[in-house]
Design goal:
heterodimer; A: about 100 residues; mainly alpha; about 0% strand; flat; B: about 230 residues; Four Helix Bundle (Hemerythrin (Met), subunit A); two-stranded antiparallel sheet; 2 strands; about 70% helix
Chain lengths: ~100, ~230
């Protein structure tokens, strides 16, 4: 055996699952789901799709832990950036509301 | 072990089951004297490139979040901005949904192409890769249509008739950069598919198909985030 070999059936199943998850996230918009439920559903479906693509299509599930860590851990820094920018944006928003042009 | 170029060196520590086993494998790899990643060098380099690309798109999306949160004017409703009327029926976000399904399908055919490459089924592999490239080209075509439509409606990077001025800048920047990645991917896949069909990798092995596949799946992965955070939010 050479390289990454997995049954084709597995890829077809993941493909189908990605179709269903995409259809569900499209339905969230179509059915006008609003508020907290909307954000939760969008993020949950997004993360599920991303995990399926990375784990199965990109074979990360079968890679050695050293490679998995290199790929998965650094993007956490982006969450820190997003957190800091959210605080900053809130502040700018309050300033703009306080001093409208 | 043969000294073929691109061959994977022998594993000093075979993977073991369970988390203690995987942790031991990680420590062993990190403390190796000669190398850390037991994959072909091209694959390790592609992963590191994709990591850097993750940061590019991550900062774009963070920038988009910042301007959207900080604006005091109403953000245009993407559901309506990207709606189309087909055959007299008003369909919100329909083009984006079709684009999403096309890109996911191309990821599916790409995963199967990798599978057939390692089985040394050259014809099926090249055909599936060509199919992937065609789906990619279709995606870029639909994106060009979407851009033209929005530009005709007066959306510009500095303003638009629907709401917040920052909408156009975010839209053109994020989808433009993604579309550029898809275009580059179509060219990359077409070249590799052509070479696979002509047996260029019979001697070297077919890692290149998996590496090209990693790039393509990454483009699909980025679209998952853009679809959720830009079009649905």
């Amino acid at each position: 055996m050479e390289g990454q070999q997995h049954p084709v059936g597995l890829y077809l199943k993941v493909w189908g699952l990605l179709f269903v998850l995409s259809a569900l996230s499209y339905l969230v918009d179509l059915l006008h789901v609003e508020g907290l439920l909307r954000w939760t559903l969008i993020l949950a479906l997004m993360m599920a799709k991303a995990a399926l693509i990375v784990a199965v299509f990109m074979h990360l599930r079968w890679e050695r832990l050293a490679l998995v860590c290199v790929v998965v851990i650094p993007p956490a820094a982006l969450l820190v950036l997003a957190g800091m920018m959210a605080t900053e944006s809130d502040y700018i928003f309050s300033l703009r509301s306080l001093y409208p042009r | 072990m043969s000294a073929q170029p691109g061959a994977v060196p022998s594993d000093p520590e075979p993977p073991r089951a369970g988390w203690p086993g995987r942790a031991a494998e990680l420590v062993s790899d990190l403390s190796g004297d000669r190398q850390m990643f037991y994959v072909p060098w091209g694959k390790a380099m592609m992963w590191i490139f994709l990591l850097s690309d993750t940061f590019i798109f991550g900062t774009f999306l963070t920038g988009y979040m910042s301007v959207r949160m900080a604006t005091t004017t109403g953000w245009p409703n993407p559901s309506e901005v990207f709606a189309l009327t087909i055959g007299g029926v008003h369909l919100p976000l329909i083009l984006i949904a079709i684009m999403t399904f096309v890109l996911i399908s191309s990821s599916g055919t790409m995963a199967m192409a990798v599978n057939y490459a390692y089985r040394r089924d050259r014809r099926r592999c090249a055909a599936l890769m060509a199919g992937t490239a065609v789906c990619g080209a279709l995606f870029v075509g639909m994106q060009a249509f979407e851009w033209s439509k929005l530009i005709a409606e007066g959306v510009r990077p500095w303003g638009n008739p629907m709401g917040s001025a920052q909408f156009g800048a975010s839209f053109f920047m994020i989808t433009g950069f993604h579309g550029m990645h898809v275009t580059a991917g179509v060219i990359y896949l077409a070249i590799v598919a052509w070479r696979v069909a002509h047996g260029a990798y019979e001697r070297k092995g077919y890692e290149i198909v998996e590496i090209a596949g990693l790039y393509w799946h990454f483009v699909d992965l980025v679209w998952v985030f853009i679809f959720a955070l830009f079009y649905l939010w």
